[in-house]
């Protein structure tokens, strides 16, 4: 068999993109709740436009999302029908601590996740839980500046201790931060960071990164003390950067960009700041405040496995005049003439997944987990209700083949695969519903209209067969 016995096939979502119920059950306001759809979305996500309250002039898609808060039992039943072995989800921090700094957690929020995990366990589905997925209580942004402040470590570790203790017998696999490197690219969405005029933005981002890295190590330490059987991982927005030509300057520039993203995982997996990062900060005059105990904490509390998202590879030139850019999630990239692209300009590169798997495994020699991968596309519902998403099947098929090659030909240790948006949800980058990823269609449009009814796409039964055969029949 190409895929190992016990391989964790499943799907992935995030609370901020699917739960809705944004003030239900005592939940507090979080960063995602003030990021609107439309033209202001990107400026807010970048931390360049300050928006810490909701207004009547904008539409906020996270407020209802697909209302999984009230529909999770039916949704998990559909996941079970597909045969999921694993379901990656996130806990909403402000559902547990509405302001982020309370003495006691919100019991109603804790009970919600108890019920959700119980539903997974009922069907033999292993929860893979992201503790912080683009999710910071707004109160902490307003009062201490979010991850700009070292005080966030205390608040985050208390939150971690609470959920680790509560769910120690229900959840084995944990991720501390989703796409931790996104802090550098979308500072407010990724970490609740806002910039004021005259601030050294790069220094602020790397100081916030240090606080998150220390918090991640603390969480890993606490988790292993609460339950030594926990497997705690980190999470990277993955995808290798190719040089535009064989000009050594292009090759060097591609290496620099990859290192920018490896920086976080180098620390979480190896336990210390890499020398290239220290030299970069020295050159740029970036001074990070660290405590004496930070080095030892980072060194002694590295992660058990490395997870990552993969949607596309990237392409870069050292020549600033070469500026024919295309979209690519939060990463600007040149158009690769050898690759096709999605409707949103994301370049489709299955071999790039195999390259990324090998790059990460060669670098860290730790088990890997692909926790996001998929094709965002417009799905059309036929008159008879059928949704023929063959394009999605083709995309996933080719990426599964690349995974199989990495395992069988290259010896990469891969724990599982949870394609993104296994049920349609709100796009993090655009706030749209029409950019769909799921095996399950949700009746809702970009303006928030629709019945929220769920229906199976053609890919639903295809993926069910993939799981049944452990990846042999694709």
UniProtKB/TrEMBL annotation:
Gene3D superfamilies: Glycosidases (3.20.20.80). It holds the Pfam family Glyco_hydro_1. One of its GO terms (molecular function) is beta-glucosidase activity. GO terms for cellular component: cytosol. One of its GO terms (biological process) is carbohydrate catabolic process. Belongs to the glycosyl hydrolase 1 family. NCBIfam families: PRK09589.1, PRK09593.1, PRK09852.1. This is 6-phospho-beta-glucosidase. It comes from Clostridium uliginosum.
């Amino acid at each position: 068999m190409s895929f190992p016995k016990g391989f964790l096939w499943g799907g992935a979502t995030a609370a901020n993109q699917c739960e809705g119920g944004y003030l239900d059950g005592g939940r507090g306001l979080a960063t995602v709740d003030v990021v609107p759809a439309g033209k202001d979305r990107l400026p807010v996500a970048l931390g360049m436009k300050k928006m810490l309250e909701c207004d009547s002039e904008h539409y906020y898609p996270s407020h209802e999302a697909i209302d999984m808060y009230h529909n999770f039992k039916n949704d998990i039943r559909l996941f079970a029908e597909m045969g999921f072995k694993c379901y990656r989800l996130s806990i909403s921090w402000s559902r547990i601590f509405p302001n982020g700094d309370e003495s006691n957690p919100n019991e109603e929020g804790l009970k919600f996740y108890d019920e959700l995990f119980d539903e997974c366990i009922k069907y033999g589905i292993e929860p893979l839980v992201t503790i912080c997925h683009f999710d910071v209580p707004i109160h902490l942004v307003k009062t201490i500046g979010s991850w700009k402040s070292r005080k966030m470590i205390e608040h985050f570790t208390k939150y971690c201790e609470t959920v680790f203790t509560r769910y120690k017998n229900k959840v084995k696999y944990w991720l501390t931060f989703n796409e931790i490197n996104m802090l550098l690219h979308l500072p407010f969405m990724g970490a609740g960071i806002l910039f004021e005029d005259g601030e050294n933005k790069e220094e602020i981002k790397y100081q916030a990164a240090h606080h998150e890295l220390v918090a991640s190590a603390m969480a890993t330490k606490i988790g292993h003390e609460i339950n030594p059987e926990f497997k705690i991982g980190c999470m990277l927005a993955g995808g290798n950067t190719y040089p535009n030509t064989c000009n050594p300057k292009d090759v060097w520039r591609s290496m620099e960009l990859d290192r920018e993203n490896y920086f976080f995982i180098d620390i979480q997996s190896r336990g210390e700041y890499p020398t290239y990062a220290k030299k970069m900060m020295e050159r740029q005059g970036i001074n990070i405040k660290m405590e004496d105990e930070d080095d030892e904490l980072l060194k002694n509390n590295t992660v058990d496995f490395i997870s990552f998202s993969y949607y596309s590879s990237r392409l870069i030139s050292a020549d600033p005049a070469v500026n024919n850019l295309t979209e690519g999630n939060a990463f600007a990239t040149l158009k690769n003439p050898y690759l096709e692209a999605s409707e949103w300009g994301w370049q489709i590169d299955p071999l790039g997944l195999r390259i990324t798997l090998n790059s990460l495994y060669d670098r860290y020699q730790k088990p890997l987990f692909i926790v996001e991968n998929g094709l965002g596309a417009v799905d059309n519902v036929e008159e008879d209700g059928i949704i023929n998403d063959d394009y999605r099947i083709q995309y996933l098929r080719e990426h599964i083949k690349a995974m199989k090659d990495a395992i069988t030909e290259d010896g990469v240790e891969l724990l599982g695969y949870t394609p993104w948006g296994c049920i349609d949800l709100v796009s993090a980058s655009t706030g749209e519903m029409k950019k769909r990823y799921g095996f399950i269609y949700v009746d809702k449009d970009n303006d928030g209209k629709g019945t929220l009814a769920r229906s199976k796409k053609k890919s639903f039964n295809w993926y069910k067969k993939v799981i049944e055969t452990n990846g042999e029949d694709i």
